[in-house]
Amino acid sequence: MADDPLFLIIVVACLVVAGILVWGISVFGSGGDSKKSNKLMQLRIAAQFVAVVLIVAFAWFRMGGN
Q1: Can you give the residue ranges of the HIG1 domain (predicted)?
Q2: CA-CA distance, 33 to 61, in Å (whole number)?
Q3: What is the largest CA-CA distance in the chain?
């Protein structure tokens, strides 16, 4: 499974989601601009949507695409 390119893309997408989450929490926790933190959380939701779509596509292709 680790040699599948789609799997590697999914891992990168999940790491991007985690990175955005940590970045948004750190901005919010440091008392920074709440608008920036809110925009980062919106970006996280979009990235999370992409990651979930990739995971579902991976599962569908692994099942044979039926």
Answers
A1: 1-66
A2: 42
A3: 50
Let me know: does 9 contact 54? Beta carbons within 8 Å.
yes
Of 10, 9, 21, residue with least CA distance to 45: 21
Task: Give the alpha-carbon dihedral of 7, 10, 14, 20, to 10 degrees.
Answer: 140
Taking the C-alpha atoms of residue 50 and residue 34, their distance in angstroms, rounded to an integer, is 24
The domain segmentation of the chain, as residue ranges, is 5-64
For 11-43, the pLDDT digits (tens) are 999 999 999 999 988 888 888 777 888 899 999
